[in-house]
Amino acid sequence: MTEEWPHPVTADRFPSPVPPGTGWPEDLARPSTPTARSADDVCQRADESRNLSELSAQVSVCRACGRLVAWRERVAHDKRRSFAAEPYWGRPVPGWGSDTPAVVIVGLAPAAHGGNRTGRIFTGDRSGDWLFAALHRAGLATLGTSVHAADGQRLIRTRMVAAVRCAPPDNRATPDERRTCAPWLSAELALVASTMRSVVCLGSFAWDATLRTVGGLGYLVPRPRPRFGHATRVDLSDQAYERSLAVFGSYHPSQQNTFTGKLTEEMLDAVIVAARDAA
Ligand code: SF4
Questions:
Q1: Tell me: the pLDDT tens digits for 65-115?
Q2: N- or C-end of the chain: fewer Cβ atoms within 10 A?
Q3: What is the mean pLDDT of residues 245-273?
Q4: Whose CA is nearest to atom 8 of ligand 1?
């Protein structure tokens, strides 16, 4: 018999990793949701997704990158000792938040014991604690913490996404894995483009991925591509649709940056507030 553990909020029991459509809070997939198993599959399914629910469901069952699938599931099986009594999501982490966001936050990838455990991006790790606190101070999140799916947290006019949807070993996806995952981000930003007015990129990888992606959606990105920096702002326009987009860079709220003082709460707040006001 498969071993199961109680979800920390609902107490429903799940294997670790969690099979799709078994009742995990915020899980949009069903057992029948089609699984992408190759880069071509990702392109096709991302292209065919008609709305965010369908896209997120398909993202959450993706198995296109063998190394990342093996890693995320091994972490979900082995767990960290402090979380040994709960199930890990152990699947790709889809975008989360408003379906009609004015502000989009782009991160690198889920954390092994954060999003890969809770199933919600930036949830259950120290980086997320910083980010959600800043969003709450700016009036973009209803709570100052995001602990677990079903905790009551809600984003206001804001959505969060990761450029790579699976937790990678050492927080580093390979160039191939990044390329394979890119169509999910592209499809998601396309689905919110009509309301999206500003993007906050957490770190240089998110910055590059965002500019590449919005360039593909029709926004005019200067050449050479603007360099990442904290509090850097680039204003883009999409002349075909007569819309504009303000892209902001921020140091990632990783412990490496927050412990050393490279990123302070005031610095993060200033970028989030600027993105909110630009939207
Ligand atoms: Fe699929 Fe992206 Fe995860 Fe690769 S990283 S398995 S493309 S969700």
A1: 999 999 999 999 999 999 999 999 999 999 999 999 999 999 999 999 999
A2: N
A3: 97
A4: 165
Q: How far is CA 153 from CA 51, 98, 169, 170, in A?
A: 22, 12, 28, 28
Contact 117, 239 (CB under 8 A): no
- The CB density around residue 17, as the number of other CB atoms within 10 Å, is 21
Q: What is the number of alpha carbons within 13 Å of residue 15 lying toward its C-beta?
A: 12
Q: How far apart are CA 127 and CA 112, in angstroms?
A: 12
Q: Of the candidates 106, 123, 60, which has an alpha carbon nearest to the alpha carbon of residue 198? A: 106
Ligand 1 atom 7: the closest Cα is on which residue? Answer: 181
pLDDT tens digit string along 196-231? 999 999 999 999 999 999 999 999 999 999 999 999
166 Cβ closer than 6 Å to some ligand 1 atom = yes
Q: Inter-axis angle of helices 52-59 and 39-48, to 10 degrees?
A: 160
Q: Which residue from 160, 131, 161, 155 is spatially nearest to 142, judged by alpha carbons? A: 155
Does residue 64 have its Cβ closer than 6 Å to ligand 1?
A: yes
Atom of ligand 1 nearest to the CA of 109: 5
Query: Which residue, chain included where needed, has tokens 């490279």?
Result: 262
pTM score, whole prediction = 0.97
- The full length of the chain comes to 279
Reduced to 3 states, what is the DSSP secondary structure of residue 172?
coil
Ligand 1 neighbourhood includes 180 CB (under 6 angstroms):
yes
What is the mean predicted confidence (pLDDT) over 33-51? 97
